[in-house]
Amino acid sequence: MAETIRRAALVAAAGLIAAGALSGCGGDSGTVGERAAASGSASASPGEGRDRDFVVEPDKLGPSDFARHGETPSPRATPVAPTPAACPESGAAVSTGLVDAAMGRRAVVVELVNCGTGPYKVNGYPGIGALDKDGDPLRLTVTHDRPYTDAGRDQGPKPLTLAPGESVKSVLNWNNRVTTFDAVTEGAYLVVTPKEGEPPQTLPFRLDIGTSGELDVTAWARDLLR
Q1: Residues 110 and 98 sit within 8 Å (Cβ to Cβ)
Q2: pLDDT class for 220, splitting at 50, 70, 90?
Q3: For the chain, what is the HEC assignment?
Q4: 3 Ramachandran zone, left/alpha/beta (phi>0; psi -120 to 50)
Q5: What pLDDT digit, counting tens, does each position of 118-175 carry?
């Protein structure tokens, strides 16, 4: 009988201990929840949480050079060669192509187009000069038949008559090698005189001619040699 009463007392005591522990845990849990809520309320701006400050709005992003997922990337724009704004009174418009550069050697095609309404005649070599960024002329030594490429081989002067819309070409070759420690002045403009007696046409053009100042020019020709 005494043993039975002792066991009942132990069971009752264990129950009281467990109930107190659970009550304590519940109180702590409620305290933590209240603190978390209070902390969130104190740090958040009225009407929104802190995380919203870091949301990126897609419609506010600027245009990108990269294609979006599933889109085909657009090719990069090809540099546009400078050309005259309008047809000159002479009826001949001069323009330059893109510079072909390799191993320090440079080549560019100068094209003359008959933009007038009547025939246009040329014979021989275009007059070529260059100006620096301040508009001062560069000292150039113009040569003929010293090409760096097959296309730059001189075909020699010959009379050519261009109908409206037809064109002829001349190739310029030069070397950008620098052989001194002196400052090198580059050309910023190319000055092209289509034929003797006509006004020159000035085109924006970078001429990195180095220290030699030697520029090879071919005669006007309908087609370049291959």
Answers
A1: no
A2: very high
A3: CHHHHHHHHHHHHHHHHHHHHHHHHHHHHHHHHHHHHHHHHHHCCCCCCHHHHHCCCHHHCCCCCCCCCCCCCCCCCCCCCCCCCCCCCCCEEEEECCCEEECCEEEEEEEEEECCCCCEEEECCCEEEEECCCCCECCCEEECCCCCCHHHCCCCCCEEEECCCCEEEEEEEEECCCCCCCCCCCEEEEEEECCCCCCCEEEEEEECCCCCCEEEECCCECCCCC
A4: alpha
A5: 999 999 999 999 999 999 999 999 998 776 666 668 899 999 999 999 999 999 999 8
pLDDT the model gives residue 226: 73
Site of tokens 């897609």: 58
Residue 5 pLDDT exceeds 60: no
* Top-confidence residue, 149 or 117: 117
pLDDT given at position 140:
93
Is-above-0.85 flag for pTM?
Answer: no
User: Long-range CB contacts (< 8 A, 24+ apart) of 138-143?
Assistant: 138/185, 138/187, 138/207, 138/209, 138/213, 139/213, 140/209, 140/213, 140/214, 140/215, 141/212, 141/213, 141/214, 141/215, 142/215, 142/216, 142/217, 143/214, 143/215, 143/216, 143/217
Tokens of 198: 């006509």
